[in-house]
Amino acid sequence: MSNSRQTVDLLIDAQWVVPVRPSKVSLKNHSVAVVANRIVAIMPTTDAHKTFVADKHIVLGNHVLIPGLINLHTHAAMSLMRGQADDSPLMRWLSDHIWPTETRHISEQFVYDGTLLACAEMLRAGITFANDMYFFPGAAIRAFIKSGMRAAIGIIVIYLPTAYASDAQNYLDKGLAIRDEYKHETKLSFCLAPDAPYTVNDKSLTQILTYAEQLNIPIHIHLHETLDELRQSQTQYSMRPIERLQKLGMIGPGLLAVHCVHMEKHEIALFARQGCHVVHCPSSNMKLASGIAPIAELLANGVNVGLGTDGAASNNRLDIFSEMRLAALLGKVATGQASALPAHQVLEMATINSAKALGLEDQTGSISVGKYADLVAVDFSAIELLPCYDPISHLVYVAGRENVSHVWVDGKLLVDQGKLNTIDRQEIQGIANYWQNRISPS
Ligand SMILES: [Zn+2]
Description:
The chain is an alpha/beta fold and 442 residues long. It is built from 16 helices and 16 strands. It has an 8-stranded mixed beta sheet, with helices on one face. A 4-stranded parallel beta sheet has the order 5-6-7-8. It has a 4-stranded parallel beta sheet with strand order 9-10-11-12.
């Protein structure tokens, strides 16, 4: 052994490395080397041992190492409302349950506590990056920072007055001030987040577009989720929401449109032409009976599609493994084609496609030299995962969040053998007990 081995901070040997880029590749007995927060090498383990000496060397003999999963659409703090009002349609669910609870309870503390609970759940599920949209984004930021996760924070705008803000202008002003305060945090990025076309007027949408262009950040919005939304838009504006956004100039590469369940052919073509991004939330769409989004058609037309869980109140899991499996299965049901949405494509939706939607595909979303060391080890030794002919197929169809063993964000180990390093288990239990009692005293 020569003395010329290069020192790295972290070396992970894995039975398999699935880098996502290039596509469809599973590297057997490979290692990933990390210096500070970046990946510096991916190579066969035998070569890595000759090349590097590591401060921390982790051997994962039964594991598949994948890029950190990205949750491209969530309302993290809604974890406190998980299971509070199941089995009702979207508008009734919102107006009879979710909005009244929010009116009564939301505060800085609610959002910090709910977001911390969500971070604990997401990290243990191998999610390293979440695109969040909720009230009191400053409180959400503090929870994300504590957890060590990467986050895109939505500057939420909605006409409904809440304890956080009084009107659309007030929401926008507060959100922009919070962005100014935290814009230098390296693990944070920002989106303008008008809630939906039916909760934000044209004047506010135009203003939001101006800020998005000036600040060069994406616009994150719920769009074409239900037939009710389309009917209401016809009544009020005599056009579909996408047409309305197009007239306002919002249809472009900075648009991250969540749900897109009801899309006509010309709208899919428009999205492809304009480089819009779509967030598919299969569990939420099924649970609220919104319908089945035409994901295979969007992808076939060249639209970039990522995956999200939506909030825990409409899912009720913050679990991208279950979204991957459902997206693949639902894609086949929707098209009548078993070849639709194959495993490798769904894994790309959960990683690189979502990174691309947030404009960060050069930084995260695959195991590539130069990118952030956002890495997840999935333990394939469980009986339920045997045998394994194809690790990529297993990741989508067989493995679950319960198989996640290690999670690194920015080169830091945040989950070690399923145990959270940054969040205290007892604190999370206390938070859940406290809010459950406040929301629904027993
Ligand atoms: Zn949502």
